[in-house]
Predict the structure.
Amino acid sequence: MIQTDVKELGNHEYQVHVTVPQGEYDRIYNEQLLKLSRQAKLPGFRPGKTPPAHLKQQFGSKLHEDTVSELVQAHYVPAIESSKLIPAVQPLLDVPAMQPATGFEFTMKVTTWPTVDLKDISKLTFDATTVEVETDDIDSVIERLQKSQVKFEIEAERKAKNGDQLHIDFVGVIDGEEFDGGKGEDVPLVLGEGRFIPGFEEQLIGSVAGDEITIEVSFPVDYQAAHLAGKDASFATVVKSVGKPETAENADALAVMLGFDNDAALRADAQARLDEEAEQASFSATREAALDALLAAHEISLPEALLEQDMRETTKRVLDNMKQQGTEAPADMFKDEAFKQQVRTRSERGLKLSVLLQKVRESADLSVDDIEIEAELNRQSQQYPEEQRDQFKTWIRGQQEQMGSVREGLLERRCIEYIASEAKTKPVTKALSEWQAEQEQG
């Protein structure tokens, strides 16, 4: 029977000292010796007939190492269970080189989640925000659609102006040699949008279909492709067509262009979409205020091991997101003190809120059921075309991590709603456009 002794180190860190009886060590050692005797092939001995004393002399160190490995694997989990501790991170194992005359010992450093006494939620104070859709918000959507829904009518003799769409072929050279990414065929280009290298679009103004133009430009010194940065380049360019921008004559024409019966139907669709955005914005604003109030009311000391693990995971997520966006992290990014402090602050906030929200769940006995989860899947599926919605829901139900994320999101919402219902909240109303402006500034 193993013996487990727990010593508190402070700040939710413990040392678990495990003592394994000599008899257990001998049992595992003899198992390793038997296994080795069946495998060993030594000169002068038939397989399986090598004397144990000879094996111990030849492989004593390996036998001990294998025995220690087996003992640790066999008693690692039981020792943690015996300690009654619930690790928040992987325990740190230490096997002392100097062992007692009898038996075997090892220690583990176990870090647990912080504990906190939840304060009276009814004493929290914060703003409960309601974001509303105003007529101006709908007008802004229609105005943006009016500007973005442009058709281009090709005119054979038209001289290109800003706002016109050209289709061009081009071949770029640097020092007389073509370079990767410098060639394109039938490429659409709206003059004035600034999609190409500075100076490129300006040299196409006044051109007509059929013109062959040599465009001289310099790549910016901070250009994302380092091998092109600061280089002078020439582009042999053929203008294939020039299109004049045409917009809808009136609101009804815009609606028809977008697949609606008339302006009223388009505005009703815009209202519904903005209402949904406003609802999400209301929850988001109230959520942040509730979480800030919850954090301010509680002091939580995080163990460094837990914080460091979360910081590593946060940094990895940042890297993964950058890779998905096709961005390469600067070499010195992770050495930057401001970046490291930002990651640390984010991790501290996230971990403390995890502890507090779990306490809220337990104290208020909050949960979500399968009906609520199914309703959330239905809501999320609305972003896909109707014929793909069942496929999306089937896929996400088969993803354990994704389903866990859905459940956690619903539980967090339930926590926020509970906190808002119990706390002393001040009603605040703001227009959707005001809320959007705040997000852009933030």
